[in-house]
Specification:
Elements (H helix, E strand, L loop, with lengths): L6 H14 L6 H20 L10 H11 L5 H17 L17 H7 L5 H8 L4 H13 L10 E2 L23 E8 L2 E7 L1 H8 L2 E10 L2 E7 L4 H16 L7 H16 L4 H12 L4 H5 L4
Antiparallel strand pairs: 1-2, 2-3, 4-5
């Protein structure tokens, strides 16, 4: 297909091919997937990803991770299936071997259903959890990690962060003198985080001799520390929160706490609101400050 083909033409060509091999027999479903593929093609061009027929599995994951900041889970699932069909059409995935794109969670859904915890509330929750979980909650409060980020966390000299623009004020105050780490659990985006030295020292006590392959929410990851994360951590946090507070806003609420605290800290260091918001967005690993705004409600 010519490189100058519009996203609509690319989508139409793919859907026609899928109808021909009866992958999409329904006219109605075909039109729905064509609409999704047109949007995917437009977004991919905007974000510097390949054209639809040239997207790799990793390109699709990168797209879905970024798109998950903009749309809810139902839309993200439909777009994932549209990309799944496209990869099967191109022979990139073999459906006879049950090869599938991993399910990516909508961060927009998580953001909208979570709210910040106070430090006192987190301390009450920690009292209902074991030492490993207590360490993780301290780390998550200081870095704004997502649930599964702990699995791919490594010292920065072992995992180079992605080359993305960053404000000079990034990590100002809280993380400037911290120990640099990086994590790669968001669609190929390796982002830097900073740990206070005392937390880095405690973390390294759990370093595994060799990475262990685990599956979390249908995604295969390599775990570098003998610590729980992902769904296991989220479930444990929920149960402890219910016992401690009588309610839970989910583990993702700690990212809200981090975002709100960092906004206050950066503004206290003299940053204007817009500059502080942009900086916090970079620290959270977002692609747009508009996504970070939802954390500040």
């Amino acid at each position: 297909m010519p490189r100058f083909a519009s996203p609509a033409k690319q989508a139409n060509s793919i859907i026609n091919a899928l109808r021909k091999d009866k992958t999409i027999p329904s006219i109605r479903s075909g039109e729905n997937y064509k609409e999704r593929l047109t949007i995917i093609g437009s977004k991919a061009a905007e974000w510097g990803l390949p054209m639809l027929r040239a997207m790799s599995v990793q390109d699709c994951i990168n797209y879905l991770e970024r798109r998950g900041e903009e749309v809810q889970q139902a839309t993200l699932n439909t777009e994932r299936l549209a990309l799944q069909y496209t990869l099967e059409l191109m022979g990139t995935l073999d459906k006879t071997k049950n090869e599938r794109l991993p399910v990516v969670k909508s961060e927009l859904d998580e953001i909208k259903t979570s709210r910040a915890y106070t430090r006192d509330q987190v301390e009450l929750i920690k009292e209902r959890m074991g030492p490993k979980y207590q360490l993780l909650l301290d780390i998550y409060l200081e870095t704004g990690l997502r649930a599964a980020d702990i699995f791919t966390l490594l010292p920065i000299e072992e995992q180079t962060p992605s080359d993305r623009p960053a404000n000079e004020e990034k990590f100002l105050g809280r993380g400037r003198n911290g120990v640099p780490y990086s994590t790669d659990s968001k669609g190929g985006l390796v982002r830097e985080v900073r740990l206070p030295p005392h937390l880095a020292e405690r973390l390294e006590q759990f370093r595994l001799d060799k990475p262990v392959t685990i599956v979390d929410r249908d995604v295969r990851l390599e775990k570098n520390y003998d610590l729980p994360g992902g769904k296991q951590l989220s479930n444990a946090f929920y149960r402890a929160s219910i016992r401690a507070l009588g309610w839970s806003r989910g583990l993702h609420g700690l990212r809200h706490t981090f975002a709100q605290e960092r906004m206050t800290e950066l503004q206290n260091h003299g940053l204007k609101y817009e500059r502080a918001l942009e900086t916090v967005s970079q620290e959270l690993g977002h692609f747009s400050p508009n996504t970070t705004l939802v954390y500040l409600r």
